[in-house]
């Protein structure tokens, strides 16, 4: 069987100028990064901003399992299938992070015959957006420390600096460090630390900003720490927001690439959904809606994380709404949730499927709470049996969801035809009453309770003493109207990764609250969530190499 990389490398790509032409973008607005990648000038959005919007289709999934779900693959395959049906479609995806690519196998370019290309470039340095975000983040960190070194006019307490440095790699050694050692000339010694770039608040801001002006305003509101008198200190007070915007100016322009079947694809921004809001940039999504009749996008991990944040953060802040939701599941994932070992997932087991269906059932119920029409699609594996598929189809349709099979990994757009037809039928026939889960005016504590109880199914939400203290600070600083961004494990509806299926009568604990004043949301930390991952026992980097002809090997 061919690897994803081999399939991608065998593809004959069209010049990116031809893809831009297919998407209707005049050459003057296309800034090429080599032959197969480009950025789309901000001036193009200004030119077409008064166009009507196309239909927005969100692809989400059940909780991830070791069996694999293929959400990004289905997203790309659906866009390819819509194109095969003669529709003007584009897909908007997140950018991969180097950390997971070098640490745990997995990227963000899809798989099989539903991929975006050039795959290896997309999964590695791409157009340098993540490097720009890393640099902007670390410029702010260095300017904070320099302010203290040069007299500390703002009276920043070095013990209360909350801004961390970033690097786009998995490196547990950097989670907690002491910086500023070596005497007075080398700064003030203090506890410091690193996050992975995609966990930076700058990534969140980057993906929520509509334009450069708003980007600069949001960057200026970042709280970097507190004074000796417990007053917040912002990036604007440090004077860093202008230079940070300069570093991000080119990166803010959406990236244009293509799928294996030459469907236009925009890949821009990449916050993780377990520690951030997990959606591609507002800039790319809004541009796509002006360019195409159908925009297929995704949100990270399961619907309890990605879709909830797409609805309650991205849609709320961007003033957009989905017209339909595609919920991806697999027979294998449901059997895993039903207690079947990974090695036995290829064996027919309808009883285990019945037990594990409850995870999909909860995700269907959750999406229905937002009033959006839903299509459940089974990402098909060759071992799936007729009895297993029939059971899932019957259960989904009984819940009011449309059902379709997707074979896009093996067949590309052709294998997504059934799904595409069901999505088009749903868009035409089903009413969309989209609304967010909670009102802006609800107190932060109640917003957290609402998500934990309504979406996760928690019976009780407990706040630590530290979280309660921050709650009071949030209200005092005037941030009580912010939405909440809950950071928790992606593997379970609960905050315990071992609780599979649909846990009942469980409690969750809010250990910590973080104020993302620039991004405009409050992060609630449930359980032990690392914002700097570590490398596994066998890092994926051990298999990645380059041959004598310059061809990359071992990347997925």
Itemize the secondary structure elements and their pairings.
Blueprint: H1 4-10, H2 16-22, E1 30-32, E2 38-40, H3 42-48, E3 55-61, H4 71-84, E4 89-93, H5 98-103, E5 110-111, E6 114-117, H6 119-123, H7 129-149, E7 156-161, E8 165-167, E9 177-179, E10 190-192, E11 194-196, H8 201-208, H9 212-220, E12 223-227, E13 232-234, H10 235-238, H11 241-248, E14 255-259, E15 264-267, H12 282-291, E16 294-298, H13 303-318, E17 324-329, H14 331-337, H15 350-368, E18 374-379, H16 386-398, E19 402-406, H17 408-411, H18 417-429, H19 444-456, E20 460-463, H20 465-476, E21 484-487, E22 507-516, E23 521-526, E24 545-546, E25 552-553
Parallel strand pairs: 3-16, 3-17, 4-15, 4-16, 8-11, 17-18, 18-19, 20-22, 21-23
Antiparallel strand pairs: 1-2, 2-14, 5-6, 6-14, 7-12, 9-10, 12-13, 14-15, 22-23, 24-25
Helix pairs in contact: 4-18, 7-8, 7-11, 9-11, 14-15, 15-16
How would you explain this protein's 3D organization?
By secondary structure, the protein is α/β, with parallel strands linked by helices. It is built from 20 helices and 25 strands. Strands 1, 2, 3, 4, 5, 6, 14, 15, 16, 17, 18 and 19 form a twelve-stranded mixed beta sheet that branches. Strands 20-22-23-21 form a four-stranded mixed beta sheet. A three-stranded antiparallel beta sheet has the order 7-12-13. β5 and β6 (114-117) form a beta hairpin. α4 (71-84) crosses α18 and α7 (129-149) packs antiparallel against α11. The radius of gyration is 23 Å and the shape is globular. The two termini are 13 Å apart. The model has no long low-confidence stretch (mean pLDDT 95).
């Amino acid at each position: 069987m061919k690897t994803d990389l081999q399939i991608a490398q065998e593809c004959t790509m069209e010049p990116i100028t031809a893809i831009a032409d297919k998407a209707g973008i005049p050459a003057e607005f296309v800034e090429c990064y080599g032959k197969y990648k480009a950025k789309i000038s901000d001036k193009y959005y200004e030119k077409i901003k008064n166009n009507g919007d196309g239909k927005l289709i969100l692809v989400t999934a059940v909780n991830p399992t070791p069996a694999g779900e293929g959400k990004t693959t289905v997203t790309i395959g659906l866009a390819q299938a819509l194109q095969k049906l003669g529709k003007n479609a584009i897909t908007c995806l997140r950018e991969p992070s180097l950390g997971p690519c070098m640490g745990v196998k997995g990227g963000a370019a899809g798989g099989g015959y539903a991929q975006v290309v050039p795959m290896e470039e997309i999964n590695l340095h791409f157009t340098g957006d993540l490097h720009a975000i890393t640099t902007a983040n670390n410029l702010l960190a260095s300017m904070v420390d320099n302010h203290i070194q040069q007299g500390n006019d703002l009276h920043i307490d070095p013990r209360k600096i909350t801004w961390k440095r970033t690097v786009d790699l998995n490196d547990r050694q950097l989670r907690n460090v002491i910086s500023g050692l070596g005497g007075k000339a080398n700064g003030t010694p203090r506890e410091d630390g690193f996050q992975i770039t995609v966990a930076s608040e700058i990534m969140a801001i980057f993906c929520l900003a509509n334009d450069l002006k708003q980007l600069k305003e949001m960057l200026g509101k970042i709280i970097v720490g507190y004074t000796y008198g417990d007053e917040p200190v912002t990036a604007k007070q440090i004077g860093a927001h202008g230079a940070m915007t300069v570093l991000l100016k080119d990166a803010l322009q959406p990236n244009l690439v293509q799928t294996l079947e030459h469907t236009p694809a925009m890949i821009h921004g990449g916050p993780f959904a377990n520690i951030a809001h997990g959606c591609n940039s507002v800039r790319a999504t809004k541009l796509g809606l002006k360019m195409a009749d159908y925009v297929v996008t995704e949100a990270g991990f399961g619907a309890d994380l990605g879709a909830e944040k797409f609805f309650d953060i991205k849609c709320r802040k961007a003033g957009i709404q989905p017209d339909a939701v595609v919920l991806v599941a697999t027979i294998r994932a449901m059997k895993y949730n039903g207690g079947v070992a990974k090695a036995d997932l290829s064996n027919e087991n309808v009883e285990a499927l019945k037990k594990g269906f409850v995870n999909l059932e909860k995700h269907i119920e959750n999406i229905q709470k937002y009033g959006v029409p839903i299509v459940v699609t089974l990402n098909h594996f060759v071992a799936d049996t007729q009895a297993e598929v029939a059971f899932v189809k019957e259960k989904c349709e009984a819940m009011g969801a449309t059902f379709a099979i997707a074979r896009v990994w093996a067949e590309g757009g052709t294998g997504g035809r059934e799904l595409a037809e069901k999505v088009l039928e749903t868009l035409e026939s089903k009413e969309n009453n989209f609304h967010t889960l909670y009102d802006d005016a609800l107190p932060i504590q109640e917003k957290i309770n609402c998500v934990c109880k309504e979406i996760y199914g928690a019976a009780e939400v407990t706040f630590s003493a530290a979280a309660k203290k921050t709650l009071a600070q949030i209200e005092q600083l005037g941030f009580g109207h912010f939405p909440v961004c809950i950071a928790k494990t992606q593997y379970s509806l609960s905050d315990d990764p071992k609780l599979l299926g649909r846990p009942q009568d469980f409690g969750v604990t809010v250990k910590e609250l973080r104020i993302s004043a620039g991004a405009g949301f409050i992060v609630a930390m449930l359980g032990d969530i690392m914002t700097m991952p570590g490398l596994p026992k066998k890092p994926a980097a051990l298999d990645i190499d380059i041959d004598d002809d310059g061809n990359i090997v071992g990347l997925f």
